[in-house]
Amino acid sequence: MSDDPVVIHTDGGCRPNPGPGGWGAVLRHRHHVREMCGGEPAETSNNRMELTAPIMALEALTRPVLVHLYTDSTYVRNGITKWVLGWERNGWLTAAKQPVKNVDLWQRLQAACALHQVEWFWVKGHSGIADNELADVLATRGLQQAIAGA
């Protein structure tokens, strides 16, 4: 695996929440840039869209690489770096013995991460970080395209 990371910024959201949703991702490696977006015209949630964005970005990578993944969702970052192994160990139940929400996406994100060396970073949303702002624009585009195509 190269020490030259693929840098990914992701975002997702719904309007309203729950409601139709969109996700966006910006992937950068050296001088290559890939923009991705998509959405759900049916009712979904902000958290599902925030999870879908890194899943789609990681699944788009064609070989194992070092990834620096930036999200403005503490839910996603804490979930994948702190909580998911405990949930899995507990049969996908929370500490309160309740089923983990979005378990299908957590399992898919785990599988996508297993193929790469992923380092997770949290960034404050709407704080002027160019690729985070672009991921937000792409998530909105994904939402609009999903609604238009429904």
From TrEMBL:
Which Gene Ontology molecular-function terms are recorded?
magnesium ion binding; nucleic acid binding; RNA-DNA hybrid ribonuclease activity
Q: Where is the RNase H type-1 domain?
A: 2-144
Which InterPro entries does this UniProt record tie to the protein? RNase_H, RNaseH-like_sf, RNaseH_domain, RNaseH_sf, RNaseHI
Q: Where in the cell is it found?
A: Cytoplasm
Which residues bind Mg(2+) 2 per the record?
Answer: D11, D136
UniProtKB keywords: Cytoplasm, Endonuclease, Hydrolase, Magnesium, Metal-binding, Nuclease
Entry EC no(s): 3.1.26.4
Pfam families, alphabetized: RNase_H
Q: Which cofactor does it need?
A: Mg(2+)
Quaternary assembly: Monomer.
Q: Which family does it belong to?
A: Belongs to the RNase H family.
User: What is the recorded function of this protein according to its Swiss-Prot or TrEMBL entry?
Assistant: Endonuclease that specifically degrades the RNA of RNA-DNA hybrids.
- Name the chain's protein: Ribonuclease H
Organism from which the protein derives: Mycobacterium adipatum
Gene, per the UniProt record? rnhA
